[in-house]
Design goal:
Elements: H1 8-12, H2 19-52, H3 61-84, H4 86-105, H5 110-138, H6 144-153, H7 156-173, H8 176-197, H9 205-210, H10 215-241, H11 246-263, H12 279-297, H13 300-307, H14 312-333, H15 339-362, H16 372-397, H17 404-433, H18 438-462
């Protein structure tokens, strides 16, 4: 009797989403969309916020300190999700996210805006890690690249409508509406997500269901959270150094560098900052890629409004161009089926983002066309779109499922610390030069980000081995 041959396509076809997985995807995408609207809208509105509240020099700090604080939430989320599952982490994250946005919406001064954004970022840190944990628990390995691509494409609607809506609110209503809208939209996102995560246990579900607690694990988690607090404090002090008198600034820088050198290595796999191949190299590369992108992205609206006189709405369209390019490149990158292809896409992405930053810098001198920023940021968005999700897929593929919470936490923690440090250095450069020569201040601030892209290329060439 001859066996009926099985078509090759049937052997290799990826599994289909179940109804429960479809609901999970819907909740994930709504949550990402809300976060994206908040990020793009606030970045569009922040130049006006800083000018209206009379503290333009604190503009970079309004991004750097909240990003540093989000590290605490990310580290806590990793251990918490591995121990108790994603549900309590998600609820706490959304509650803090909403509370922080409401504080920023009602803020009378720029420091209060920064305080509100800091609370919001603590919740966002919890959320970004728990969403990665949900993806790892709810979807098989074959479906994860597609889900991560959908995650990136959830930025499309915010990229299209976020800048014009934020620009309209700033121009015709008030910048406070931008913060309030994020707070309102986060609540239905949570309500949709709760049924989806109810049945998801932690990665180490035997430990969760049995109720047993391991003192050594709890002590390790406590040490990691303390290290996160120290690292966040170091990054925040580095940001504040740019706005302190000479001797105080020097002391803050020394203290910040010391704190970061002691605490940051405790938040990532051993050997990460010594360029050891494996998970550490993936985490380091992701941090450099994200720092190159975000270190540029937050300055572009301010560059176009202050240097070229554009309106907030028009300047915000650069963020639209970058985000749409990111989403399109992520969709193309999701077609990669093997790790060698993913590594090539990561290298190409780093090259594109570095070239894109250089093109943005060329727009700064008087007489140069400001639309060069759009060309540069289409390249930059495409670069991070090609590399960002590929790095996540590589990392989860080389890590046991029971450790996905902690490894996702390490990935996001290093990313946020990298961005916060780059923004702190950019803030120091911008604060020192913006009064005397704003064009040079912008150029050197963006050059810091370009150096991150070059460093990422070196790491991938030497340490992101197969």
């Amino acid at each position: 009797m001859t066996a009926t041959p099985v078509p090759a396509a049937a052997k290799t076809a990826p599994p289909r989403l179940t109804p429960g997985q479809r609901r999970t995807v819907a909740g994930l995408l709504l949550m990402v969309t809300v976060s994206a609207f908040e990020a793009i809208g606030v970045t569009t509105a922040m130049p006006t916020v800083a000018r209206e509240l009379g503290n333009l020099s604190l503009y970079p700090v309004a991004f750097a300190i909240p990003l540093a604080t989000s590290v605490i939430g990310m580290v806590l989320a990793g251990f918490w999700a591995d121990r108790r599952g994603p549900r309590p982490v998600l609820v706490a994250g959304v509650a803090l996210f909403v509370a922080g946005l409401l504080v920023a919406m009602l803020a009378p001064t720029m420091p209060v805006v920064i305080a509100g954004r800091t609370v919001m970022s603590l919740g966002a840190g919890l959320n970004v890690v728990v969403l990665y944990v949900i993806i790892s628990l709810a979807f098989p390995e074959q479906l994860r690249p597609k889900v991560f691509a959908w995650d990136s494409m959830a930025w499309v609607a915010p990229a299209l409508f976020g800048p014009p809506l934020a620009g309209f609110a700033v121009t015709h209503l008030s910048w406070r509406w931008v913060f309030g809208a994020g707070a309102v939209l986060a609540v239905p996102a949570l309500l949709l997500m709760l049924p989806a995560v109810r049945g998801l246990a932690a990665g180490g579900d035997q430990e969760v269901t049995s109720g047993k607690r391991e003192p050594a694990a709890d002590a390790g988690a406590a040490r990691a959270v303390l290290a996160a607090v120290g690292a966040a404090a170091g990054a925040a002090m580095l940001s504040l150094a740019a706005h302190s008198p000479g001797p105080a600034a020097a002391l803050l820088v020394l203290a910040a560098v010391g704190l970061l050198m002691v605490t940051a290595p405790r938040l990532v796999p051993a050997g990460t900052y010594r360029l050891r191949p494996g998970p550490g190299a993936v985490i380091l590369t992701r941090g450099l890629l994200a720092a190159a992108f975000m270190g540029t992205d937050v300055f572009l609206p301010l560059l176009l409004t202050q240097q070229h006189g554009w309106s907030p709405t028009a300047a915000g369209l650069t963020l639209t161009a970058g985000a749409l390019s990111w989403s399109a490149a992520a969709w193309l990158g999701a077609k990669a089926t093997d790790d060698d292809t993913r590594r090539r896409l990561i290298r190409l992405g780093l090259l594109m983002i570095t070239v894109g930053i250089v093109v943005c810098v060329l727009s700064i001198p008087q007489g140069m066309p400001p639309w060069l920023v759009f060309i540069g940021w289409v390249l930059g968005g495409g670069g991070i779109g090609l590399g960002y999700s590929q790095l996540t897929v590589l990392l989860l593929g080389m890590t046991p499922t029971a450790q996905h919470g902690r490894i996702s936490s390490a990935l996001q923690t290093n990313e946020q610390l990298s961005i916060a440090v780059v923004l702190a250095v950019g803030a120091a450069v911008f604060g020192a030069l913006s009064t005397a020569n704003s064009g040079l201040a912008f150029a050197l601030s963006l050059a810091v980000s370009a150096l991150c892209g070059l460093a990422g290329l070196l790491v991938t060439a030497r340490r992101l081995a197969s």
